[in-house]
């Protein structure tokens, strides 16, 4: 269990928000982004106008340039930890598993996780995702009543799929779902003291829950990730201290991201009726295009950070050891040097797959094939079963910057 946030943390967070607010007031665009603006896309364009690698008053270099972003993500002179191997200080004391590790520990953990997320399982995932989407649509209110796309559909799918993957016993699933939602703010970067406290408690409860499940699988192994990992503990390739955070990291990395891919996709489709019509006419053929174009146009994860492990010259700038660089992936996805008419949502776009929405290099998302299968199933099912879908109220967005999406999106059918 992690230590509870204290008065010191509250003060440190308040200080941080003050700094952000002051820098934003003085025109610092990266500070503005970190404060979670209503619409970040115009801010990205203002940052793009400053050049390929401007430096924020907060000390961080920032890029919207696709070529630089792609290069940095693949450059082994950059990492996710400080040069001495320490974690970059954050408000939340969470071990984000392999995503927070540099080589060689990163490679060891990643290699052990690969089999559970192998794209060869896509056929099985597809059947399961289709079955779940059909069930969730059946459960929607009948007769044109308003429903919430996020809570009544999008939030249900990924958490169920991850529960299957990790091997959560049926009786623990409602608790797993609740706790997974409570740790979601971990992905958001800037959060409130209140949220940090809630997250800390949820991490403690999830850790206890996983300890129990790991014990269960030691006695009675199944066809799940935990059971697949146990031999690596026995032969010393993995420690128990690494398995627990890994179990917890998967619902974190794989839920809220996929939830918002589905939400952002439906929102973009309904805002672009020509594209919605195309999908409705050919759900089987175009659902994959919706996934790729939504990942490009409005990606769930908007930025990644890297730290220079040595002095690095880049785009006319010199980054010192431990210099921090923010990759604005959502902006790189609209770089006019790579994408024609980048602000247009076009589900038939051929270059959509060049996006950086699943990152690149050694941390490239391990769950990308699974996320694609799930979101494709969702768009296919929605277009087939709910062709008369309409917006029925104002969406409520997540008040965060790193994960971009909605908390609520009222829709109706007919
Ligand atoms: C639309 C859904 C998803 C998006 C947009 C997404 C995005 C990302 C991104 C951007 C990263 C790397 C961040 C960085 O480079 O700093 C990442 C890493 C990762 N993701 Fe995903 N993800 C999604 C779904 C999933 C799912 C479904 C899973 C697993 C069930 C998953 C598991 C992981 C893992 C294990 C890593 C760490 C890889 C490493 O550090 O080597 N993700 N994801």
From TrEMBL:
Gene Ontology MF terms: cholest-4-en-3-one 26-monooxygenase activity; heme binding; iron ion binding; steroid hydroxylase activity
Keywords: Antibiotic biosynthesis, Heme, Iron, Metal-binding, Monooxygenase, NADP, Oxidoreductase
Alphabetical list of InterPro entries matching this protein: Cyt_P450, Cyt_P450_B, Cyt_P450_CS, Cyt_P450_sf
Metal-binding found in the keyword field: yes
Keyword Metal-binding attached: yes
Pathway(s) per entry: Antibiotic biosynthesis; mycinamicin biosynthesis
BP terms from Gene Ontology: antibiotic biosynthetic process; cholesterol catabolic process
PROSITE patterns, per the entry: CYTOCHROME_P450
Record CDD domains: CYP164-like (cd20625)
Family (UniProt): Belongs to the cytochrome P450 family.
Protein name in UniProt: Cytochrome P450
């Amino acid at each position: 269990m992690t230590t509870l946030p204290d008065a010191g943390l509250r003060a440190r967070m308040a200080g941080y928000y003050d700094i952000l607010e002051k820098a934003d007031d003085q025109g610092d665009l990266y500070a503005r982004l970190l404060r979670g603006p209503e619409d970040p896309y115009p801010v990205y364009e203002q940052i793009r106008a400053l050049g390929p690698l401007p430096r924020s008053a907060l000390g961080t270099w920032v890029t919207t340039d696709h070529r630089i972003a792609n290069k940095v993500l693949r450059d082994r002179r950059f990492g996710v930890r400080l040069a001495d191997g320490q974690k970059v200080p954050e408000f939340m004391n969470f071990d984000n598993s392999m995503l927070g590790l540099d080589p060689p520990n990163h490679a060891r953990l990643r290699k052990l996780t690969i089999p559970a997320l192998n794209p060869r399982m896509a056929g099985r995932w597809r059947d399961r995702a289709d079955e779940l989407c059909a069930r969730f649509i059946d459960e929607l209110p009948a007769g044109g009543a308003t429903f919430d796309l996020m809570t009544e559909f999008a939030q249900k799918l990924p958490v169920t799929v991850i529960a299957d993957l990790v091997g959560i016993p049926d009786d623990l699933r409602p608790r797993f779902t609740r706790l997974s939602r409570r740790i979601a703010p971990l992905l958001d970067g800037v959060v409130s003291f209140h949220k940090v406290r809630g997250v800390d408690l949820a991490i403690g409860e999830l850790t206890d829950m996983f300890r129990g499940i790991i014990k269960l699988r030691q006695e009675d192994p199944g066809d799940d990730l935990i059971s697949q990992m146990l031999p690596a503990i026995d032969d010393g390739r993995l420690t128990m201290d690494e398995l627990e955070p890994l179990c917890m990291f998967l619902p974190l990395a794989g839920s809220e991201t996929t939830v918002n891919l589905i939400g952002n996709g439906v929102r973009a489709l309904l805002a672009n009726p020509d594209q919605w019509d195309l999908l409705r006419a050919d759900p089987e053929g175009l659902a994959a295009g919706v996934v790729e174009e939504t990942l490009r146009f409005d990606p769930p994860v908007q930025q990644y950070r890297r730290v220079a492990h040595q002095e690095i010259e880049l785009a006319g700038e010199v980054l010192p050891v431990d210099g921090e660089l923010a990759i604005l992936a959502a902006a790189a996805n609209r770089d006019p040097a790579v994408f024609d008419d980048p602000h247009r949502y076009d589900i038939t776009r051929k270059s959509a797959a060049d996006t950086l929405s699943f990152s690149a290099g050694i941390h490239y998302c391990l769950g990308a094939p699974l996320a694609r299968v799930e979101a494709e199933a969702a768009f296919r099912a929605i277009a087939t079963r709910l062709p008369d879908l309409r917006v029925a109220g104002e969406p409520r967005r997540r008040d965060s910057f790193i994960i971009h999406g909605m908390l609520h999106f009222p829709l109706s059918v007919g």
